[in-house]
Amino acid sequence: MPNTTSLRYVDLSHTIEHGMVTYKGFPGPVICDFMSREASKKFYAEGTSFQIGKIEMIANTGTYVDSPFHRFENGKDISEMPVEKFADLSAVVVRVNNMTGRAVDRDAFLKTDVRGKAVLVHTGWARHWRTEQYLEGHTFLTEAAAVHLKEQGAVFVGIDSMNIDDTSGGTRPVHTVLLGAEIPVAEHLCDLERLPLSGFIFSAVPAKVKGFGTFPVRAFAKL
């Protein structure tokens, strides 16, 4: 039997809160009671109550993953992706948090064996979460970096930044390359500084929603 007492879990997700902004111009989630604990009391015996919550949000809220359908009309949606694409992935961290400039090019990944790995890019941008600065001038990957990760056999790519692509223009080459190869993408990760460079397991599993290309996750590492 494995020694589970030696395991440590690191939560890599932002908390979804009422009204928070993930992208400028997109609505924040509305979180409220569908049935309050007080209202539920009339349905149950004395001393028994329940709360049933309600949330209204866009798919791109908090920490989430993208499936091919997010970018491609005929790509697999979240419900069609096998769970092994999101769970129990051998992972590595690539640290670029001290770089100058915003673009993370292929050179950042040349010394890391990414084959069969979830590749988590630690930019340090998560420190700006829930501030105006988070929404402008974020760090991103180049198309060449995405091509390299695909060609070298990465199975998942995540970043602790606002977007894995440069959003200053209308193209999204990193999404195109990775999702076109059915490599899921996670954005808005956090706390990657708490991870080693390798030797851990990563999971970021979304709800199984039909017709969605993106959905929030509870991303975490198992050390």
The gist of it:
By secondary structure, the protein is mainly beta.
List keywords for this structure.
mainly beta, single chain, two-stranded antiparallel sheet, 2 domains, 13 strands, Glucose Oxidase, domain 1, 3 helices, about 220 residues, nine-stranded mixed beta sheet
Describe the structure.
The protein has two domains: 40 residues, no CATH class; 159 residues, Glucose Oxidase, domain 1 (3-Layer(bba) Sandwich). The protein has a nine-stranded mixed beta sheet, with helices on one face. A two-stranded antiparallel sheet has the order 2-3. Strands 6-8 form a two-stranded parallel sheet. By secondary structure, it is mainly beta. The model has no long low-confidence stretch (mean pLDDT 96). It has three helices and 13 strands.
